[in-house]
Write a structure and sequence with these properties.
Number of helices: 8
Shape: elongated
Radius of gyration: 23 Å
Number of strands: 0
Structural class: mainly alpha
Largest sheet: none
Strand content: under 5%
Number of domains: 1
Helix content: over 70%
C-alpha cells in the first residue's frame, strides 16, 4: 500500500479511536463520581451531564463518521476541538456546574465513608483530603484528556485529509485544452 494511501486511511481512524478512548476514560471517571453523588440524593451530577453531553455526543458522532469514512466526520473536527477546549477550560476554572458537582462529590463520598488507600493513609492523608484529591484529579485529568484527545483527533484526521487532497488533483474544466489533451492521451 502506498504511504499516502496508508496515511489517508489509517491516520483518521487512529484519531477516531483516540477520541473514543478518551471519551470512554472520561465517562468512567465521571460515572463513578456521578454514582456516588446521585446515591446521596444530590443532583449536581445532572447539571454537569448537561454541560458535558454536547461535547461527548458531537465527539462520538464525529469519530464514528470518520471510522465509516464519511466526509462529515472530517468537517466536524473543528467544532469538536472547539467544544472540547471550551468544556475543558470550563472544568479547570471550576465554573458552575462543575464546581458544585465536585463539592457535592466530596460531601457525598465523606458521607458514604470513603476509604483512604494504605499508601495515602501512610502519608497522613485524611478522608477529606483524599476526596478533594479525587475531585481535583477528575477536574484536571478529565479536562486534559478531553482536550488532548480532541487535539489528537483534529491533527490525525486533518493530516489524513491533506493526503486525500494531494492525491486527487482537480480535473481540468471540460472543453479546455488540458482536458482534450488528457482525453487524447487515454
Amino acid at each position: 500500500m502506498h504511504l499516502a494511501a496508508y496515511d489517508e486511511v489509517m491516520l483518521p481512524r487512529l484519531g477516531a479511536l483516540l477520541m473514543l478512548g478518551g471519551l470512554a476514560y472520561g465517562l468512567a471517571l465521571y460515572g463513578r463520581m456521578a454514582y456516588v453523588t446521585a446515591v446521596e440524593g444530590l443532583w449536581s451530577w445532572a447539571w454537569t451531564l448537561l454541560l458535558l453531553a454536547p461535547m461527548a455526543l458531537l465527539s462520538t458522532a464525529a469519530a464514528i463518521l470518520v471510522l465509516r469514512g464519511h466526509r462529515l466526520g472530517r468537517r466536524l473536527t473543528r467544532p469538536v476541538l472547539a467544544l472540547a477546549l471550551v468544556t475543558g477550560l470550563w472544568a479547570i476554572a471550576n465554573a458552575p456546574p462543575v464546581g458544585g458537582f465536585l463539592s457535592d462529590y466530596e460531601e457525598a463520598s465523606l458521607a458514604r465513608g470513603i476509604e483512604v488507600p494504605p499508601f495515602e493513609a501512610s502519608q497522613g492523608l485524611t478522608a477529606a483530603e483524599y476526596a478533594d484529591k479525587i475531585a481535583g484529579d477528575f477536574k484536571l485529568q478529565g479536562a486534559l484528556i478531553a482536550m488532548g484527545a480532541a487535539l489528537g483527533f483534529y491533527i490525525l484526521v486533518r493530516r489524513g485529509a491533506i493526503f486525500v487532497r494531494r492525491r486527487r488533483a482537480p480535473s481540468p474544466p471540460a472543453g479546455s485544452p488540458e482536458a482534450s489533451a488528457k482525453a487524447k492521451a487515454q
